[in-house]
Design a protein that fits this description.
By secondary structure, the chain is mainly alpha-helical. It contains 31 helices and six strands. Helix 31 links the parallel strand 3 and strand 4.
């Protein structure tokens, strides 16, 4: 039987353009120049074939110049479809904008697909002013509510971080289908607006709008950011019912969601059930889930399984391994060996994130000089995460000289980074550098840098309960504060004393006021709520998520609470998981 290629070659001898176009679509021809050349020889190159050729040339960066040459030399009177093909072919570069302006000067008016293509360019290149002009043009042409234009506009606003404009556009849509909902859910989740993303997902389901793999994976991304285990379970069930469970994108998002919610066993079940379709993204998600728990044994086991199946690990694979080593307090030598293997066996050059794991491990081991030398000698400019790792270690070691140097470098990177000021202030105060602390606070005030508001939340029965420090908004506030008083009384009998961050000692408030503020931190209120009757079932793990670093006093409180209430408490802060059990934490008091 003749192969597809033989059939293709045979039929080239007497082809008109429609046949050539059909074959170009039907057969996977690596080089569209074959069809183009034959079309020129047989005079079969009409507009329809040229559009197909432009699209196929755009699939290879090396062949992209042929698309422009074909357009300008072989399409004498390009119409809107011709221009759209050319613009779409160059959508990843500024050339698309030049071609779009040329089209308007021709003059040719765009259609909804043209606008969608050029809006994708603006989103990729973050050309916000030009995108606004396109929005105005789409309104004038009556195309802004068209599906292609509307979804592209949403994507543009979300990628340019103009979330409020995107939501306004979404609300003004006369009819919202699954495309609009998917774009909004993904956009909100990607802009750290997880509660709103989940709310839009719930609205979509309530309205009977069908799900897509993008809306489901976007909702799972939002759930994973908030580490909301029950939401992951609800969306998991929905993915099974809608038939998307065995979609590789959804399955990978589920693994990531369960992993970031701290339930690596459920993530592994999803992984095993979808093993045959798993790509490198899914493997990395599973390994990252174990890495957050410091489960180096499971991470390395998966790595060897991956190698056995012929999959090639990438830089994210090794980042998961190094993170697991760092979170499990493995030796510096282990991390160095993995980095060497990454380079020698797979030809992968470590990035700044990989070096940060090594620097953090060195700092944790008390090797501050080695960590600092590596920071200044690695082939990258150290980012804020690297300097923060060093700063935390210096705080533990009370190395005043290095603290001042690192604070300077950290604030040079971003003078408006509120977390940098807080960490720096506590580090300097731990070394007794009160003048520097005062200067730092003045600088923070002068720059009008405000500390991000701390929030903690507990999920129960599919609902997320969010708390701020000193929060009185909850419907069960009376019970929450009464329970908190009971818990604090119980741990005081076990030997608890308040632990103030050093920077608090020189605040101009009295002792009682400082104790009051400390007592009502958001994570303590979340814990008191979670330990109310009917919230977290007896014997179950109490899970709390916080948007900032957990403070030293709350960390101490949770260690005592794990003894007083006789259960495991898991707190996921912005840095890592803290698993409290029998008066100890898995972070070993270093975070």
């Amino acid at each position: 039987m003749a192969s597809a290629w033989q059939v293709f070659a045979y039929t080239l001898s007497s082809m008109n353009s429609s046949y050539l176009s059909t074959l170009l679509e039907q057969y996977n021809v690596d080089d569209p120049r074959v069809v183009h050349g034959r079309a020129l020889r047989t005079a079969a190159a009409d507009r329809y074939l040229c559009h197909h050729l432009i699209t196929n040339y755009s699939k290879s960066p090396d062949l992209l110049p042929y698309s422009s040459r074909l357009f300008f030399t072989q399409i004498p009177s390009p119409n809107v479809v011709s221009w759209t093909s050319l613009i779409a072919a160059h959508s990843a570069s500024p050339a698309a904008i030049r071609h779009f302006v040329s089209m308007l000067r021709h003059p040719t008016l765009p259609n909804s697909r043209t606008l969608a293509s050029i809006l994708r360019t603006c989103a990729a290149l973050l050309c916000y002013p030009f995108g606004l002009s396109l929005h105005a043009l789409s309104v004038k042409l009556g195309l802004s509510a068209e599906m292609f234009t509307g979804s592209a506009l949403l994507d543009f606003y979300f990628k340019c971080r103009s979330v409020n404009d995107a939501l306004k556009l979404f609300d003004e849509m006369p009819e919202r289908d699954e495309v609009y909902y998917s774009a909004s859910i993904v956009g909100l989740a990607s802009n750290t607006r997880p509660l709103e993303a989940l709310s839009v997902f719930a609205e979509m389901r309530k309205g009977g709008i069908g799900s897509t793999m993008y809306s489901i994976s976007g909702a799972l991304k939002a759930a994973s950011e908030m580490a909301t285990l029950e939401q992951c379970g609800i969306i998991h069930a929905h993915s099974v019912i809608t038939g998307f469970y065995q979609n590789v994108v959804v399955a990978s998002a589920l693994i990531d969601g369960y992993g970031k919610s701290g339930l690596s066993s459920e993530a592994r079940r999803v992984f095993d059930e979808n093993l045959q379709i798993m790509n490198i993204v899914g493997w990395n998600s599973m390994m990252s889930g174990y890495a957050q728990q410091g489960d180096i044994r499971s991470v390395t086991e998966l790595f060897h399984m991956m190698e056995g199946r012929g999959l090639v690990p990438d830089e994210y694979t090794f980042l998961a391994i190094l993170s697991a080593c760092n979170n499990s307090a493995n030796s510096v030598e282990d991390i160095e060996q993995w980095i060497a293997r990454m380079k020698s066996m797979y030809g992968l050059e470590p990035r700044v994130e990989h070096y940060n794991c090594l620097i953090s491990a060195m700092a944790r081991a008390g090797r501050l000089e080695d960590a600092h030398n590596l920071t200044t000698s690695m082939p990258f400019e150290p980012d804020a995460a690297v300097w923060r790792s060093l700063l935390v270690a210096c705080r533990h070691q009370r190395d005043a000289d290095k603290i001042k140097m690192i604070v300077k470098r950290l604030l040079e990177l971003n003078p408006s980074d509120d977390s940098a000021y807080i960490i720096a202030s506590n580090a300097l105060s731990s070394a007794g550098k009160w003048d520097e602390v005062a200067a730092l606070r003045r600088r923070m005030k002068d720059r009008q840098v405000r500390k991000e508001v701390g929030q903690s939340w507990v999920e129960t029965q599919g609902k997320v309960h969010v708390f701020l420090a000193g929060d009185w908004r909850h419907s069960r506030r009376g019970e929450i504060y009464a329970r908190l008083d009971e818990l604090m009384a119980a741990i005081k009998q076990l030997g608890y004393d308040p632990v103030f961050d050093e920077a608090h000692h020189h605040e101009s408030v009295d002792e009682e006021e400082r104790k009051e503020k400390l007592l009502h931190h958001s994570e303590k209120l979340a814990a008191a709520f979670g330990l109310l009757e009917g919230v977290t079932p007896p014997g179950k793990v109490l899970r709390i998520v916080k948007n900032l670093r957990i403070c030293r006093d709350c960390h101490q409180v949770f260690k005592y609470l794990s003894i007083a209430v006789g259960r495991e408490i898991i707190v996921r802060d912005v840095n890592r998981y803290h698993r409290f059990s029998d008066g100890a934490c898995t972070c070993r008091d270093f975070w």
